[in-house]
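Data availability (excerpt). The following record was deposited with the supplementary files.
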Amino acid sequence: MTSDRIHLRQGTRAPDRGAPDGRAPDLDAPDLDTPDLDAPDLTVVICAYTVERWEDLSAAVASVHAQRRPPGELLLVVDHCPELLRLAREHLTGLRILANRQRRGLSGARNTALAEARGALVAFLDDDAAADPDWTGHLLAGYRDPGVLGVGGLVRPWWRTARPDWFPPEFDWVVGCSYRGLPLRPAPVRNFIGANMSFRRAEVLAAGGFRTDLGRVGRRPLGCEETDLCIRLAARHPGAVLRYEPAAAVQHRVPAARTTYRYFAARCWAEGCSKAAVVRYDGAAAGLASERAYLRHTVPAALLRSLRRRRPATAAALCAGVALTAGGYLTGAVRARAARIAPRRSGASGPAASATGAAAAPDLPGGTP
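Predicted structure:
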């Protein structure tokens, strides 16, 4: 599925695939002291691209070293930034440091980690996030059920200034965090938030890894590469589970620059464009399933709540966020359609682009960046 194919390292033990046996997955909170949860089988991955977040990166590394159940290894992948690579090798210890060997961007960096990881399970933590001390324990506990392909957790916003009065919690996905409307207890979900997610490594490799034509490159606020991967994993294993475990929590730094109307608008528009790409690759049924529920239930409830509490600025942000995301989605869908039609008009043979479903009406985002 990606232009940069990734391969399993020789000598690396893959997990049992553990096809579901027809029983419902156990989604109750498990005992973190259960001895059959093997922490050495877990590789934690942090991807970074700039020296401007050096303090955040150092805090992220320290939070992994402080885990009550230390992972088998910690990988730092530096995305085409020689200065950061030098700094990391000079000042950080207790981890392996790699340069991204694939296309520039978060997807390429994650694929580099997948190719090099030694653990059967791989967890991803953002470079500006810090994990709670029991984070790895809660992630590992979710894999006691062989039908679970991945476990993702809660991402709490850490506002470096203060949450803007107008900023609706239902749109915390704009800043890469868990939003109001997600389950409050362990539950199956379609996709995880990229700042806090884990998978069975062999299954991600078999699915082709992260698409390198989706996702964030530097500061470009696009996303949905995690959504696409989760959809492909579910399609390969229809009875399997992607488990959301709120107890596996991290806090995600939200700088002042991400608390502005301008950033909010740009991120909503980019999410719509990204969602159009997911629909193009994976079809509208899977690509918009969570977004339909978000628009039918989460947003209307938030709008009513803001009006009852006499918060017109929040109500306006809710409406603007939906409109902007819809606009981005429609723009992305129209561009994709034009790209498919142009080669046919010119007489070119073969498909113009990979597409498994036509773009649908903008039932769109609530998805995660």
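Summary of structural features: The longest strand covers residues 241-254.
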